[in-house]
TrEMBL record:
Substrate binds at residues 91, 156. Its cofactor is Mg(2+). Residues 30-195 form the HpcH/HpaI aldolase/citrate lyase domain. It comes from Stappia albiluteola. This is CoA ester lyase. Keywords: Lyase, Magnesium, Metal-binding. Belongs to the HpcH/HpaI aldolase family. The keyword Metal-binding applies. GO terms for biological process: oxaloacetate metabolic process.
Amino acid sequence: MKTPRAFYQPLAIGAPTPCRDLPVRLERMIHFVPPHIEKMRAKVADLVNQVDVVLGNLEDAIPADQKVAARQGFIRMARDNEFGDTGLWTRINCLNSPWVLDDLMEIVPAVGHKLDVVMLPKVEGPWDIHYLDQLLAQLEAKASLTRPILIHAILETAEGVKNVEKIATASPRMHGMSLGPADLAASRGMKTTRVGGGHPDYAVLADADGDASRTAYQQDLWHYTVAKMVDACLSAGIKPFYGPFGDFSDPAACEAQFRNAFLMGCLGAWSLHPTQIDIAKRVFSPEPSEVRFAAKIVDAMPDGTGAVMIDGKMQDDATWKQAKVILDLARLVAA
Ligand code: GLV
Ligand code: MG
C-alpha cells in the first residue's frame, strides 16, 4: 500500500502536481487510437511528435469481432514505433469481459517493456485494482520486466465513484484516474445521451424580477465527480484526468469542459479526434499571463513566506504555493 503523502511537501522542480513517486511527464492529452485499423496505426509515427500519450484502445468503440485484431494491432504498433518521451498506454477490456485475460497475457510478454500504463475501465472498487496488480506482477516476473507497468482507472460507475478514495490508494502501481462521463451517466441513470459536456436543461434561472423570459445559466454536470476524483487522487499522490468529449462538431464546448477540469486540478483529458489534440495542449498548459503573475509572486517572496501586495491583490504563503504549481507546469511545458 502506498503510504499517505505528508501534509505538505514542497513540489519537486518540474513536477506539475505533488505526485510523489510517479514519473514527471506531461500528459495533457491521452490520444486514443483504434489499433485494428491499419490506416490509423500508420499515423502513430507522426502522432508521437504531436501528443503526450498515445493509447491503443481495446475496449468500447472496438466491435466484438475486432477485439483480437485490435490487440494484435496494438502489439504491432508498439513494436513498430519508438515512443521517446511520449507515453504508450493501452485501454484493456473490462475485467468481466471474455477478452481481458488474453489482452494482458499477450500484450505484456510481447511489448510490456515499452508499455507505461494500462488503463482499466469500469473500476468499481479496490478489488479490481488488486486483481490487475497481481496479474501484472505475475506477467512482469515471467517476462523478466524490470520496470513496473502502472495502472490508470476509469471512474465510470456509481459504485466506483462511491469507492474512489479506496481505488486511489489500492496499489503503488496507481498512476491516476480519468472521469468516464458516458458510462457514468448510464450507470447513474442520468438522462443524457452525450459523451461529457453540459446539457441545456441542467441549468438554474436568473431571478425573475417580473421578467418571464429570464436567463438560464447552464451548469457543469460533472463538477461533483471531478471534484471528488481530484481530492481522492491528490490526497493519494496520483494524477486526475478529465476523460472524453464526444461532440467533435463543438470545439468550443470541448475547450470549456477541459478548462473547467484544468482549473479544478486535472492534468489532462482524452483526445478522441485530432482536433482535440490542440485543444488539450492549449488548455492544459498554463496561460502566459498566469505564468507571469505567478513569477511576480515567487520573485516578491523568495523564501515563500510573509505577505505582499501585487497589483492590489494580497499574496502570502498559500498563494506562493499556488504560484509554484503554475510555474512548475510552465517549466515542464517549456522543457
Ligand atoms: C469513457 O469510457 C466513458 O464511458 O465516458
Ligand atoms: Mg466508458
